[in-house]
Amino acid sequence: MPDVVDLTKALIAAPSITPARGTVFDVLEGALIPLGFAVERFVAGEAPDGPVENLLAVRTAGPGPHFAFAGHLDVVPPGEGWASGAFEPEVRGDLLYGRGAVDMKGAIAAFVAALAPLPAAGTVSLIVTGDEEGPATYGTLAIMDRMAARGLTPDLCLVGEPTSAHRLGDTIKIGRRGSTVIDIEVPGRQGHVAYPHLADNPIPRLVRALAEIDAIVLDEGTDWFQPSNIEVIDLEVGNPATNVIPGRAKARISIRFNDQHRGHDLIARVQDIVHTHAPAGIVRGRVYGEAFLTQPGELSTLVADAIRVETGVEAELSTSGGTSDARFLSRICPVVEFGLLNATMHKLDEAVALDDLHTLTRIYAGVLGRVFR
Asked: Which of 77, 161, 278, 287 is the most buried (most CB within 10 A)?
């Protein structure tokens, strides 16, 4: 059976900056085939958001529940200044260093290592994409399409994102806020600042629209979600001159919203405001994910019980943080997220405690044992 530390090292040693393809999938496939999984790898999509490699591994041992584990092998760029090579896994003291150690190659290795012994009945599947850190257009969604075509619908799904905040097991994510990014462009008419009547300055109209948007209070939060928030994240005029009224002005806003809202409704609301101040304004929005909530119940209890047995920790149920591919998987079955400490994800010298890798493996094994008992 695969050793969790050795498999984590092997995955880290396969560079996989998003979108990931090739060698890193070879490593995972090589660990799954001896466990009896049917492994399918396929490439989906075209530029600019593709191509993306994905992996779907399925093992069926007879009638019973279908439990899915989901994750991603792609990582963010490492940046400069690592104490050792970002893709050269190195153990120093009690820590294993390398890009992806916690987000989230360590969790994938732990789940694979937890598959010993395999359940005597039921179905286990692994949904692993090479594009979660990027646009995520042809990643988990493409795997879900492939599963739907084959009639593979999980009963429960665990996503191995690094959810733990202070110690392993302290946080289980049962939902996530939605995310939309909206680009606004207000056209004007360029001209000389000394002759404003011959020009049309777009900046005041854009500023008035942004002021109204910024003043919106979307909600006060819910039992499980923090308040939704709107943030202006970019302003652009691109006017290098000191005596020219610009011909256009642009802005970008980001909205993180809870389950009281839908992304396209928020885009429409912003568009109405912009058109009130600038009828010719152009608004383009993209919904990166809708908010979702898996009500506390069977799945969160399974995971919390397994955590408690191995660590003695009472896990908090949370919806905080950014988005993950659970936003897609929640469409087909109950889904929660649980994984390693998130303190070093996306940072220089990302690292995982060796003890945490072994403990996470036992927790995942405990979850499987409870699902298939």
From this structure: 161
Q: Give the tokens for residue 24.
A: 């890193």
User: Given the DSSP bridges, would you call strands 123-129 and 66-72 parallel, antiparallel or unpaired?
Assistant: parallel
Q: pTM of the predicted model, to two decimals? A: 0.90
Q: Which of 135, 173, 172 is nearest to 286 (CA)?
A: 135
Q: Which of 53, 103, 131, 132 is catalytic?
A: 132
Model confidence over 181-227: pLDDT tens digits? Answer: 999 999 999 999 999 999 999 999 999 999 999 999 999 999 999 99
- Taking residues 164-182, report their average pLDDT: 97
Read off φ and ψ for residue 368, nearest 5 degrees: -60, -40
Whether 161 is a known active-site residue: answer no
d(CA 299, CA 66): 13
pLDDT at 323 over 90: no
290 Cβ neighbours under 8 A, 6+ residues apart: 178, 262, 263, 327
Q: Which of 53, 74, 259, 310 is catalytic?
A: 74
21 torsion bin: left (phi>0), alpha (psi -120 to 50), beta (else): beta
Q: How many CB atoms lie within 10 A of CB 280?
A: 13
74 catalytically annotated? yes
